[in-house]
Amino acid sequence: MRDVRFVALAVAAATVGGCGWFGGEATSAPIESDQAERTIELVQLEDLDDQVTVVEGDVYEQALAASAALWRSSPLVVLAPMSDAEALAAAGDAAVSLSAPLLLAQPVGDAEPVADPALTGELERLGSTTVLSMGESPVSLPDDITVVSDPADLEAQPLERRSDAVVLAADTPDTVAAQATARAAGAVVVVMDADDPRDSVPARDALSANPDAPVLALGPQLAPSSRLEPLVRVAATGVELPGGGQTMFPGRRLVALYGHPQTSALGVLGEQGPTESVTRARELAATYEPYSDEPVVPAFEVIATVASGGAGPDGDYSNETPIEVIRPYVDAAADAGVYVVIDLQPGRSDFLTQAQQYRELLLEPHVGLALDPEWRLEPDQVHLRQVGSVDAAEIETVADWLATLVRENALPQKLLVLHQFQQRMIRDRPALDAQRDELAMLVQMDGNGTPGDKLATWDALKQDAPDGLRFGWKNFYDEDTPTMSPESTMSNTPTPWWVSYQ
Length: 502
Known about the structure:
The protein is of the alpha/beta class. It has 13 helices and 26 strands.
Protein backbone atom coordinates (compact mmCIF):
# COMPACT_ATOMS: atom_id res chain seq x y z
CA MET A 1 0.00 0.00 0.00
CA ARG A 2 1.29 3.41 -0.89
CA ASP A 3 1.66 5.83 2.02
CA VAL A 4 0.66 9.41 1.30
CA ARG A 5 3.11 12.20 1.95
CA PHE A 6 1.68 15.72 1.71
CA VAL A 7 3.94 18.60 0.72
CA ALA A 8 2.30 21.93 1.60
CA LEU A 9 5.28 23.89 0.38
CA ALA A 10 6.17 27.10 2.09
CA VAL A 11 8.95 29.12 0.52
CA ALA A 12 11.20 28.48 3.50
CA ALA A 13 10.84 24.71 3.04
CA ALA A 14 12.79 24.87 -0.18
CA THR A 15 15.92 25.91 1.71
CA VAL A 16 16.14 22.55 3.49
CA GLY A 17 19.57 21.12 2.89
CA GLY A 18 20.84 17.58 2.82
CA CYS A 19 19.25 14.94 0.65
CA GLY A 20 15.84 16.49 0.04
CA TRP A 21 12.38 15.34 1.04
CA PHE A 22 12.40 11.91 -0.58
CA GLY A 23 15.53 10.53 1.01
CA GLY A 24 17.19 7.43 -0.44
CA GLU A 25 20.77 6.76 -1.37
CA ALA A 26 22.17 8.64 -4.33
CA THR A 27 24.87 7.29 -6.59
CA SER A 28 27.69 9.50 -7.83
CA ALA A 29 29.04 9.05 -11.32
CA PRO A 30 31.77 11.18 -12.92
CA ILE A 31 30.78 12.25 -16.44
CA GLU A 32 33.40 13.05 -19.07
CA SER A 33 32.61 15.95 -21.36
CA ASP A 34 34.15 19.00 -22.96
CA GLN A 35 33.18 20.90 -19.85
CA ALA A 36 34.66 20.41 -16.41
CA GLU A 37 34.05 17.01 -14.81
CA ARG A 38 30.54 16.82 -13.34
CA THR A 39 28.89 14.49 -10.86
CA ILE A 40 25.24 13.71 -11.57
CA GLU A 41 23.24 12.35 -8.66
CA LEU A 42 19.60 11.69 -9.45
CA VAL A 43 17.65 10.62 -6.37
CA GLN A 44 16.85 6.91 -6.24
CA LEU A 45 13.04 6.93 -6.20
CA GLU A 46 12.95 3.14 -6.34
CA ASP A 47 13.98 3.29 -2.67
CA LEU A 48 10.58 4.84 -2.01
CA ASP A 49 8.20 2.21 -3.36
CA ASP A 50 4.57 2.54 -2.28
CA GLN A 51 4.70 6.26 -1.65
CA VAL A 52 2.51 9.03 -2.98
CA THR A 53 3.61 12.63 -2.59
CA VAL A 54 1.24 15.52 -3.23
CA VAL A 55 2.64 18.95 -4.08
CA GLU A 56 0.60 22.11 -3.70
CA GLY A 57 1.37 25.78 -4.21
CA ASP A 58 1.74 28.14 -7.13
CA VAL A 59 3.98 27.58 -10.14
CA TYR A 60 7.03 28.93 -8.26
CA GLU A 61 6.49 26.71 -5.23
CA GLN A 62 5.81 23.62 -7.29
CA ALA A 63 8.99 24.13 -9.29
CA LEU A 64 11.00 24.17 -6.06
CA ALA A 65 9.11 21.13 -4.76
CA ALA A 66 9.68 19.05 -7.88
CA SER A 67 13.39 19.85 -7.86
CA ALA A 68 13.73 18.92 -4.20
CA ALA A 69 11.71 15.74 -4.68
CA LEU A 70 13.38 14.36 -7.79
CA TRP A 71 16.96 15.64 -7.82
CA ARG A 72 19.78 14.86 -5.43
CA SER A 73 22.17 17.23 -7.18
CA SER A 74 22.61 19.03 -10.47
CA PRO A 75 25.50 21.27 -11.46
CA LEU A 76 23.22 22.90 -14.04
CA VAL A 77 19.88 24.58 -13.33
CA VAL A 78 17.58 26.37 -15.76
CA LEU A 79 16.00 29.57 -14.48
CA ALA A 80 13.07 31.56 -15.89
CA PRO A 81 10.94 34.44 -14.63
CA MET A 82 7.56 33.03 -13.61
CA SER A 83 5.74 36.03 -15.11
CA ASP A 84 7.15 35.60 -18.64
CA ALA A 85 5.14 32.85 -20.37
CA GLU A 86 7.32 32.83 -23.49
CA ALA A 87 10.56 32.55 -21.54
CA LEU A 88 9.03 29.90 -19.29
CA ALA A 89 8.05 27.76 -22.28
CA ALA A 90 11.53 28.04 -23.77
CA ALA A 91 13.10 27.27 -20.40
CA GLY A 92 10.98 24.14 -20.08
CA ASP A 93 12.20 22.85 -23.43
CA ALA A 94 15.78 23.65 -22.45
CA ALA A 95 15.48 21.90 -19.08
CA VAL A 96 14.25 18.70 -20.72
CA SER A 97 16.89 18.74 -23.46
CA LEU A 98 19.70 19.51 -21.00
CA SER A 99 18.48 17.12 -18.25
CA ALA A 100 18.36 19.86 -15.65
CA PRO A 101 15.76 21.02 -13.13
CA LEU A 102 13.79 24.17 -13.89
CA LEU A 103 13.44 26.80 -11.18
CA LEU A 104 11.62 30.12 -11.31
CA ALA A 105 12.32 33.67 -10.31
CA GLN A 106 9.54 35.63 -8.66
CA PRO A 107 8.85 39.19 -9.86
CA VAL A 108 9.96 42.00 -7.57
CA GLY A 109 8.37 44.97 -9.34
CA ASP A 110 10.62 47.80 -10.56
CA ALA A 111 13.28 47.22 -7.94
CA GLU A 112 16.80 46.09 -8.70
CA PRO A 113 17.29 42.31 -8.75
CA VAL A 114 17.35 40.96 -5.21
CA ALA A 115 18.40 37.69 -3.66
CA ASP A 116 15.78 34.96 -3.23
CA PRO A 117 16.69 32.85 -0.16
CA ALA A 118 14.54 29.90 -1.25
CA LEU A 119 16.05 29.82 -4.73
CA THR A 120 19.58 30.27 -3.39
CA GLY A 121 19.01 27.50 -0.87
CA GLU A 122 17.90 25.07 -3.58
CA LEU A 123 20.92 25.94 -5.76
CA GLU A 124 23.18 25.24 -2.79
CA ARG A 125 21.45 21.95 -2.03
CA LEU A 126 21.83 20.85 -5.64
CA GLY A 127 25.47 21.89 -5.74
CA SER A 128 24.74 23.99 -8.81
CA THR A 129 27.58 25.93 -10.43
CA THR A 130 25.88 27.03 -13.66
CA VAL A 131 22.51 28.64 -14.28
CA LEU A 132 20.94 28.93 -17.72
CA SER A 133 18.91 32.12 -17.31
CA MET A 134 16.08 32.52 -19.83
CA GLY A 135 14.48 35.96 -20.13
CA GLU A 136 15.00 38.89 -17.78
CA SER A 137 15.69 37.51 -14.33
CA PRO A 138 14.44 39.66 -11.42
CA VAL A 139 16.73 37.95 -8.89
CA SER A 140 20.42 38.17 -8.13
CA LEU A 141 22.42 34.97 -7.92
CA PRO A 142 25.44 34.08 -5.76
CA ASP A 143 28.80 35.28 -7.09
CA ASP A 144 30.11 31.74 -7.54
CA ILE A 145 27.34 30.87 -10.06
CA THR A 146 28.17 31.06 -13.75
CA VAL A 147 25.22 32.54 -15.63
CA VAL A 148 24.65 31.46 -19.25
CA SER A 149 21.91 32.89 -21.47
CA ASP A 150 22.08 30.65 -24.56
CA PRO A 151 21.19 26.92 -24.33
CA ALA A 152 23.48 26.29 -27.31
CA ASP A 153 26.46 27.06 -25.07
CA LEU A 154 25.68 24.05 -22.88
CA GLU A 155 25.68 20.28 -23.24
CA ALA A 156 23.07 17.95 -21.86
CA GLN A 157 23.84 16.45 -18.49
CA PRO A 158 24.06 12.67 -18.93
CA LEU A 159 21.88 10.87 -16.40
CA GLU A 160 23.16 7.63 -15.00
CA ARG A 161 19.57 6.50 -14.54
CA ARG A 162 16.07 7.74 -15.21
CA SER A 163 13.58 8.41 -12.45
CA ASP A 164 11.08 5.59 -12.05
CA ALA A 165 8.36 7.90 -10.71
CA VAL A 166 4.96 8.46 -12.27
CA VAL A 167 4.13 12.16 -12.07
CA LEU A 168 0.46 13.12 -12.22
CA ALA A 169 0.02 16.76 -13.15
CA ALA A 170 -3.12 18.85 -13.13
CA ASP A 171 -3.67 20.43 -16.53
CA THR A 172 -3.07 23.97 -15.29
CA PRO A 173 -0.31 26.57 -15.77
CA ASP A 174 0.72 26.09 -12.14
CA THR A 175 2.33 22.73 -12.94
CA VAL A 176 4.25 23.48 -16.15
CA ALA A 177 7.66 24.15 -14.57
CA ALA A 178 7.44 21.14 -12.27
CA GLN A 179 6.42 19.00 -15.25
CA ALA A 180 9.58 20.07 -17.10
CA THR A 181 11.73 19.16 -14.10
CA ALA A 182 10.08 15.74 -13.91
CA ARG A 183 10.54 15.09 -17.63
CA ALA A 184 14.17 16.18 -17.35
CA ALA A 185 14.62 13.51 -14.68
CA GLY A 186 13.14 10.88 -16.99
CA ALA A 187 9.94 10.39 -15.00
CA VAL A 188 6.70 9.30 -16.64
CA VAL A 189 4.62 12.50 -16.71
CA VAL A 190 0.85 12.36 -17.19
CA VAL A 191 -1.17 15.51 -17.68
CA MET A 192 -4.48 14.64 -16.07
CA ASP A 193 -7.75 15.05 -17.95
CA ALA A 194 -9.67 14.73 -14.64
CA ASP A 195 -9.03 15.53 -10.98
CA ASP A 196 -9.45 11.88 -9.94
CA PRO A 197 -6.94 9.37 -11.40
CA ARG A 198 -9.74 6.79 -11.67
CA ASP A 199 -11.47 9.10 -14.14
CA SER A 200 -8.36 9.84 -16.22
CA VAL A 201 -7.58 7.35 -18.97
CA PRO A 202 -3.95 8.57 -19.33
CA ALA A 203 -3.44 8.26 -15.56
CA ARG A 204 -4.95 4.78 -15.42
CA ASP A 205 -2.79 3.67 -18.34
CA ALA A 206 0.42 5.03 -16.82
CA LEU A 207 -0.27 3.74 -13.32
CA SER A 208 -1.34 0.28 -14.46
CA ALA A 209 1.78 0.07 -16.67
CA ASN A 210 3.92 1.05 -13.65
CA PRO A 211 1.98 -0.40 -10.70
CA ASP A 212 4.90 -0.29 -8.24
CA ALA A 213 6.19 3.17 -9.14
CA PRO A 214 6.24 5.97 -6.58
CA VAL A 215 3.86 8.78 -7.48
CA LEU A 216 4.39 12.52 -7.39
CA ALA A 217 1.18 14.52 -7.81
CA LEU A 218 1.39 18.13 -8.94
CA GLY A 219 -1.38 20.63 -8.36
CA PRO A 220 -3.90 21.32 -5.59
CA GLN A 221 -6.65 20.68 -8.15
CA LEU A 222 -6.09 16.96 -7.78
CA ALA A 223 -7.72 14.98 -5.00
CA PRO A 224 -6.46 16.07 -1.56
CA SER A 225 -3.56 14.13 -0.13
CA SER A 226 -5.64 12.12 2.33
CA ARG A 227 -7.75 10.80 -0.56
CA LEU A 228 -5.25 10.39 -3.36
CA GLU A 229 -3.39 7.27 -2.23
CA PRO A 230 -6.34 4.85 -2.39
CA LEU A 231 -7.48 6.39 -5.69
CA VAL A 232 -4.01 5.85 -7.15
CA ARG A 233 -4.06 2.23 -6.00
CA VAL A 234 -7.38 1.65 -7.76
CA ALA A 235 -6.17 3.33 -10.96
CA ALA A 236 -3.02 1.20 -10.91
CA THR A 237 -5.04 -2.04 -11.03
CA GLY A 238 -6.45 -1.14 -14.45
CA VAL A 239 -9.65 -3.01 -13.47
CA GLU A 240 -12.72 -1.37 -14.97
CA LEU A 241 -16.46 -1.50 -14.39
CA PRO A 242 -18.88 -2.87 -16.98
CA GLY A 243 -19.11 -0.07 -19.51
CA GLY A 244 -15.57 1.14 -18.76
CA GLY A 245 -13.92 3.39 -16.20
CA GLN A 246 -13.61 2.99 -12.46
CA THR A 247 -16.32 5.33 -11.13
CA MET A 248 -20.02 4.66 -11.61
CA PHE A 249 -21.38 8.00 -12.74
CA PRO A 250 -21.73 9.97 -14.96
CA GLY A 251 -20.11 7.42 -17.27
CA ARG A 252 -23.10 5.09 -17.58
CA ARG A 253 -26.76 4.44 -16.85
CA LEU A 254 -27.85 0.99 -15.71
CA VAL A 255 -31.01 -0.95 -16.57
CA ALA A 256 -31.57 -4.07 -14.46
CA LEU A 257 -33.61 -7.24 -14.24
CA TYR A 258 -34.82 -7.72 -10.64
CA GLY A 259 -35.60 -11.01 -8.94
CA HIS A 260 -34.43 -14.19 -7.27
CA PRO A 261 -32.56 -16.92 -9.17
CA GLN A 262 -34.84 -19.72 -7.97
CA THR A 263 -38.35 -18.33 -8.54
CA SER A 264 -40.21 -16.20 -11.04
CA ALA A 265 -42.65 -15.07 -8.32
CA LEU A 266 -40.22 -12.40 -7.10
CA GLY A 267 -39.32 -10.82 -10.42
CA VAL A 268 -38.25 -11.32 -14.00
CA LEU A 269 -34.67 -12.34 -13.18
CA GLY A 270 -35.99 -15.70 -12.00
CA GLU A 271 -37.82 -16.43 -15.26
CA GLN A 272 -34.69 -17.77 -16.99
CA GLY A 273 -31.17 -18.97 -16.24
CA PRO A 274 -27.96 -16.92 -16.07
CA THR A 275 -27.08 -16.99 -19.76
CA GLU A 276 -30.62 -16.22 -20.87
CA SER A 277 -30.80 -13.44 -18.27
CA VAL A 278 -27.73 -11.83 -19.81
CA THR A 279 -29.43 -11.79 -23.20
CA ARG A 280 -32.66 -10.42 -21.78
CA ALA A 281 -30.86 -7.70 -19.78
CA ARG A 282 -28.93 -6.62 -22.87
CA GLU A 283 -32.10 -6.41 -24.93
CA LEU A 284 -33.82 -4.38 -22.23
CA ALA A 285 -30.88 -2.00 -21.85
CA ALA A 286 -30.82 -1.46 -25.63
CA THR A 287 -34.34 -0.02 -25.50
CA TYR A 288 -32.99 2.84 -23.36
CA GLU A 289 -30.04 3.77 -25.54
CA PRO A 290 -32.00 6.22 -27.80
CA TYR A 291 -32.92 8.26 -24.72
CA SER A 292 -29.57 8.40 -22.89
CA ASP A 293 -26.53 10.59 -23.48
CA GLU A 294 -24.47 8.09 -21.50
CA PRO A 295 -23.84 4.44 -22.42
CA VAL A 296 -26.55 2.12 -21.06
CA VAL A 297 -25.17 -0.89 -19.20
CA PRO A 298 -27.28 -3.99 -18.50
CA ALA A 299 -27.54 -5.13 -14.89
CA PHE A 300 -28.97 -7.76 -12.53
CA GLU A 301 -30.54 -6.91 -9.18
CA VAL A 302 -30.38 -10.25 -7.35
CA ILE A 303 -32.44 -10.69 -4.19
CA ALA A 304 -29.98 -12.41 -1.87
CA THR A 305 -32.03 -12.36 1.34
CA VAL A 306 -35.81 -12.76 0.99
CA ALA A 307 -38.34 -11.42 3.46
CA SER A 308 -40.24 -14.34 5.04
CA GLY A 309 -43.66 -14.69 6.65
CA GLY A 310 -42.17 -17.03 9.23
CA ALA A 311 -39.38 -16.45 11.74
CA GLY A 312 -37.28 -19.34 10.44
CA PRO A 313 -34.61 -21.25 12.41
CA ASP A 314 -32.67 -18.05 13.15
CA GLY A 315 -35.77 -16.03 14.05
CA ASP A 316 -34.99 -13.15 11.69
CA TYR A 317 -37.91 -13.46 9.21
CA SER A 318 -35.44 -13.50 6.31
CA ASN A 319 -34.21 -16.39 4.17
CA GLU A 320 -30.55 -16.06 3.21
CA THR A 321 -29.75 -17.48 -0.24
CA PRO A 322 -26.52 -19.50 -0.39
CA ILE A 323 -23.72 -17.89 -2.34
CA GLU A 324 -23.45 -20.89 -4.63
CA VAL A 325 -26.99 -20.17 -5.89
CA ILE A 326 -26.12 -16.58 -6.79
CA ARG A 327 -22.60 -17.22 -8.05
CA PRO A 328 -23.61 -18.45 -11.57
CA TYR A 329 -25.39 -15.14 -12.20
CA VAL A 330 -22.43 -13.14 -10.90
CA ASP A 331 -20.00 -15.09 -13.07
CA ALA A 332 -22.17 -14.89 -16.18
CA ALA A 333 -22.51 -11.15 -15.64
CA ALA A 334 -18.74 -10.72 -15.30
CA ASP A 335 -18.12 -12.46 -18.62
CA ALA A 336 -20.82 -10.42 -20.40
CA GLY A 337 -20.15 -6.91 -19.07
CA VAL A 338 -23.26 -6.87 -16.88
CA TYR A 339 -23.31 -5.10 -13.50
CA VAL A 340 -24.78 -6.95 -10.48
CA VAL A 341 -26.43 -5.56 -7.35
CA ILE A 342 -26.99 -7.84 -4.35
CA ASP A 343 -30.33 -6.94 -2.72
CA LEU A 344 -31.03 -7.42 1.01
CA GLN A 345 -34.41 -7.85 2.75
CA PRO A 346 -33.20 -8.39 6.33
CA GLY A 347 -36.37 -8.82 8.40
CA ARG A 348 -35.40 -8.63 12.08
CA SER A 349 -31.73 -8.93 11.24
CA ASP A 350 -29.79 -5.82 10.24
CA PHE A 351 -28.31 -4.76 6.93
CA LEU A 352 -24.65 -4.97 7.99
CA THR A 353 -24.95 -8.52 9.34
CA GLN A 354 -26.48 -9.67 6.07
CA ALA A 355 -24.12 -7.69 3.82
CA GLN A 356 -21.12 -9.29 5.52
CA GLN A 357 -22.45 -12.73 4.60
CA TYR A 358 -22.01 -11.81 0.92
CA ARG A 359 -18.54 -10.33 1.26
CA GLU A 360 -17.16 -12.91 -1.17
CA LEU A 361 -19.44 -11.61 -3.92
CA LEU A 362 -18.94 -7.96 -3.01
CA LEU A 363 -15.20 -8.39 -3.55
CA GLU A 364 -15.99 -8.73 -7.26
CA PRO A 365 -15.41 -5.39 -9.03
CA HIS A 366 -18.74 -5.59 -10.90
CA VAL A 367 -20.93 -6.27 -7.82
CA GLY A 368 -22.69 -3.60 -5.75
CA LEU A 369 -25.25 -3.64 -2.94
CA ALA A 370 -28.92 -2.70 -2.45
CA LEU A 371 -30.71 -2.17 0.87
CA ASP A 372 -34.52 -2.51 0.96
CA PRO A 373 -35.91 -0.85 4.12
CA GLU A 374 -39.45 -2.01 3.29
CA TRP A 375 -38.39 -5.37 4.69
CA ARG A 376 -36.37 -4.13 7.70
CA LEU A 377 -38.39 -5.02 10.82
CA GLU A 378 -38.33 -3.88 14.41
CA PRO A 379 -38.09 -6.69 17.04
CA ASP A 380 -41.90 -6.91 17.46
CA GLN A 381 -42.87 -6.54 13.78
CA VAL A 382 -43.71 -9.03 11.05
CA HIS A 383 -43.85 -8.54 7.30
CA LEU A 384 -46.92 -7.18 5.46
CA ARG A 385 -48.48 -5.67 8.60
CA GLN A 386 -46.50 -2.46 8.16
CA VAL A 387 -43.89 -0.96 5.86
CA GLY A 388 -40.43 -1.43 7.32
CA SER A 389 -37.91 1.34 7.89
CA VAL A 390 -34.33 2.02 8.87
CA ASP A 391 -32.34 4.82 10.48
CA ALA A 392 -29.76 6.66 8.41
CA ALA A 393 -27.23 5.62 11.06
CA GLU A 394 -27.63 1.94 10.13
CA ILE A 395 -27.17 2.74 6.45
CA GLU A 396 -24.06 4.73 7.33
CA THR A 397 -22.65 1.70 9.16
CA VAL A 398 -23.13 -0.42 6.05
CA ALA A 399 -21.70 2.31 3.82
CA ASP A 400 -18.61 2.60 6.03
CA TRP A 401 -18.06 -1.15 5.92
CA LEU A 402 -18.55 -1.33 2.15
CA ALA A 403 -16.33 1.69 1.53
CA THR A 404 -13.59 0.10 3.63
CA LEU A 405 -13.92 -3.12 1.63
CA VAL A 406 -13.53 -1.15 -1.60
CA ARG A 407 -10.58 0.87 -0.30
CA GLU A 408 -8.63 -1.99 1.25
CA ASN A 409 -8.98 -4.13 -1.87
CA ALA A 410 -8.36 -1.35 -4.42
CA LEU A 411 -11.72 -1.95 -6.11
CA PRO A 412 -13.53 0.34 -8.54
CA GLN A 413 -16.31 2.43 -7.07
CA LYS A 414 -19.39 0.44 -5.99
CA LEU A 415 -23.06 1.27 -6.38
CA LEU A 416 -25.10 1.39 -3.16
CA VAL A 417 -28.85 1.42 -3.91
CA LEU A 418 -31.41 2.40 -1.28
CA HIS A 419 -35.00 1.36 -2.00
CA GLN A 420 -37.63 3.88 -0.92
CA PHE A 421 -41.26 4.79 -1.65
CA GLN A 422 -42.16 6.57 1.61
CA GLN A 423 -40.21 9.28 3.39
CA ARG A 424 -40.35 7.43 6.71
CA MET A 425 -38.66 4.34 5.24
CA ILE A 426 -35.28 6.07 5.70
CA ARG A 427 -35.33 8.11 8.89
CA ASP A 428 -33.05 11.19 8.97
CA ARG A 429 -32.04 10.69 5.32
CA PRO A 430 -30.38 14.14 5.02
CA ALA A 431 -27.71 12.87 7.43
CA LEU A 432 -26.43 10.33 4.88
CA ASP A 433 -22.94 10.84 3.49
CA ALA A 434 -23.48 10.36 -0.25
CA GLN A 435 -20.03 11.61 -1.27
CA ARG A 436 -17.66 8.80 -0.35
CA ASP A 437 -14.99 8.22 -3.00
CA GLU A 438 -15.58 4.49 -2.82
CA LEU A 439 -19.36 4.49 -3.29
CA ALA A 440 -22.02 5.91 -5.58
CA MET A 441 -25.14 6.19 -3.40
CA LEU A 442 -28.52 6.15 -5.12
CA VAL A 443 -32.15 6.15 -3.96
CA GLN A 444 -34.45 4.06 -6.12
CA MET A 445 -38.08 5.16 -6.30
CA ASP A 446 -39.66 1.81 -5.49
CA GLY A 447 -43.37 2.60 -5.75
CA ASN A 448 -45.86 1.02 -8.14
CA GLY A 449 -49.20 2.09 -9.58
CA THR A 450 -50.22 4.59 -12.24
CA PRO A 451 -47.64 6.91 -13.82
CA GLY A 452 -49.19 9.78 -11.88
CA ASP A 453 -48.85 7.94 -8.58
CA LYS A 454 -45.25 7.04 -9.33
CA LEU A 455 -44.35 10.60 -10.33
CA ALA A 456 -45.88 11.96 -7.12
CA THR A 457 -43.70 9.54 -5.13
CA TRP A 458 -40.68 10.52 -7.23
CA ASP A 459 -41.22 14.22 -6.54
CA ALA A 460 -41.61 13.61 -2.82
CA LEU A 461 -38.44 11.52 -2.56
CA LYS A 462 -36.34 14.18 -4.26
CA GLN A 463 -36.88 16.56 -1.35
CA ASP A 464 -34.09 17.12 1.21
CA ALA A 465 -31.62 14.89 -0.59
CA PRO A 466 -28.04 15.03 0.74
CA ASP A 467 -25.37 16.32 -1.61
CA GLY A 468 -24.14 13.68 -4.04
CA LEU A 469 -27.23 11.45 -3.80
CA ARG A 470 -28.46 10.19 -7.18
CA PHE A 471 -31.85 8.80 -8.11
CA GLY A 472 -33.13 5.67 -9.79
CA TRP A 473 -36.50 4.31 -10.88
CA LYS A 474 -38.34 1.00 -10.71
CA ASN A 475 -40.86 -0.32 -13.23
CA PHE A 476 -43.23 -3.21 -12.53
CA TYR A 477 -44.55 -5.35 -15.37
CA ASP A 478 -47.63 -6.52 -13.45
CA GLU A 479 -48.32 -3.95 -10.67
CA ASP A 480 -47.92 -0.77 -12.75
CA THR A 481 -50.92 0.40 -14.77
CA PRO A 482 -49.49 0.72 -17.34
CA THR A 483 -45.77 -0.03 -17.23
CA MET A 484 -44.01 3.14 -18.33
CA SER A 485 -42.04 3.06 -21.56
CA PRO A 486 -38.27 3.70 -21.66
CA GLU A 487 -38.97 7.11 -23.20
CA SER A 488 -41.40 8.05 -20.42
CA THR A 489 -39.09 6.71 -17.73
CA MET A 490 -36.16 8.73 -19.05
CA SER A 491 -38.24 11.91 -19.28
CA ASN A 492 -38.24 12.23 -15.48
CA THR A 493 -36.21 14.98 -13.85
CA PRO A 494 -33.53 14.24 -12.93
CA THR A 495 -33.03 11.51 -15.49
CA PRO A 496 -32.74 8.21 -13.60
CA TRP A 497 -29.24 6.73 -13.40
CA TRP A 498 -30.59 3.27 -12.53
CA VAL A 499 -33.80 1.59 -13.70
CA SER A 500 -34.83 -1.79 -12.35
CA TYR A 501 -37.62 -4.05 -13.71
CA GLN A 502 -39.64 -6.43 -11.55
